[in-house]
Request: fold
Amino acid sequence: MRSVVQQNCTTEIVLHAAITYSDPYNDVDVDARLTGPDGTSIDVPGFWAGGDVWKLRLSASTPGEYRWETRCSNADDAGLHDRSGTLVVEAYSGDCELLQRGRLRVAEDRRHFEHTDGAPFFWTGDTWWMGLTTRLDWPHGFRELATDRVAKGFNVVQIIAGPLPDMDAWDPRGRNEAGFPFEAGFERVNTAYYDLADLKIAELVRMGLIPCIVGMWGYYLPQIGVDRAKRFWRYLVARYGAYPVVWCICGEGAMPYYLSKTKEEDAAAQKKGWSDVMRYVRSVDGYHNLITIHPTQYGREQVEDPSLMDFEMLQTGHGDLDSVPVTAQTVATAVAREPAMPVINSEVNYEGILGRCWQNIQRLCFYHSALNGTAGHTYGANGIWQMSTAEAPYGPSPHGACWGNTPWREAMHLPGSAQVAIGGRFMQRFPWWAFEQDQEWRGKPDTTNTPYQLQAVSLPDGTRIVYVPLCWEPPAILNVAKGQKHHAYYFDPCTGEETDLGIIQGDGNNQWTPPKPPVVHDWLVVVRPE
Reply:
């Protein structure tokens, strides 16, 4: 059996069982070993695709001729065991930057991400928790939203593959066109559900959006059990691991179900159980896709061993302006902790939630995160995370309250999404991973009665950047030598436009104060030595 595929692209090998099984999902394991032209090999699981069909999905980042061979837990099954073939990997010839550069990994400095080819990657994510359900219609609505996000500059989509938050597992809002992710009692997956999910995950990759696949919401673990959760994650790894994806083991890992009467016991069991699942996923994914967990605050506090994670997700609140100082402090704390790892603020102040958290809050949270050392940022909009529609508003959560029913097509155009993406592009102008907090080169403005602070960073080449949350009186930039020339400009975080301030020099006190900006709102001041 010979297949040809371009590098970083996925090919599918179809196998047919020679034996009939009563419970193939639970009773049969098929694995493949993929050996490259240099003799190194990886092991990846295959998945049951319904009936007598099993599939392998394979990819490679380096051109050459590879050999694959299978092992089945039932060695007597000649259709699944000891099958082999050749995979010819050719150079990628398309225009998708994600497939040109390859999947993500953690860079050597442990502060940021990079692609397989070494290109740095600043995470600019969007939140589509319920994007695999019928609440986001396929293909038109799905492609409409993805096209909008690509045009704005997003490069990651956080999306849930299994049972969803803000509902129970059999809530009709959690269906796709083929039903629920699981059959009754979580006995086995509904393969038809994932046949449709395949189309959507592949479409995200084709459009250059990295799927950050969340297994399920954390509070389902007491119902499904650790062993079944591992079996489900093996299935996800087999189905999507060959794509350039990121794994998020679960959402709000240690948070019990909203109406649980045993919350303390559930929280402890979830923390232990999801740690076991995370360890298992690392052992079965031969592609070594990055692994994390979505938290209630700090990701590392959702598991027993933080070293199981490749990077840390944060959740820093939905309290509008009150969440801004919490965001800055939470990020700074996470970035400084050991073991060192990249940090992503993966949930904060969904735009429009509870009728607030508008675009000004989106900008404040983005820059108070990014300039405190994160490796990127995830935006969210109320109406998009739950894919509300005008015809079918999402409605209340199990606790009885409703977060808001803005339709996703309306929420898609909220200005905060474009402004967060503008921030992502601004960060990519610089080696952001080398930013250092430096409070000695800028003045101390009056921050009386404000819940936020200036965010100031510098680079080894002398570049200085300060985010001024309300630029009424611009801050003085200190230690600008009178005889040394610098170039300065204002960057508008609302529009992405620049206001050139020309060549500047310090005064007799070796400081320089920018002129007032064109209008008063938040601004970034950039000063670079000539």
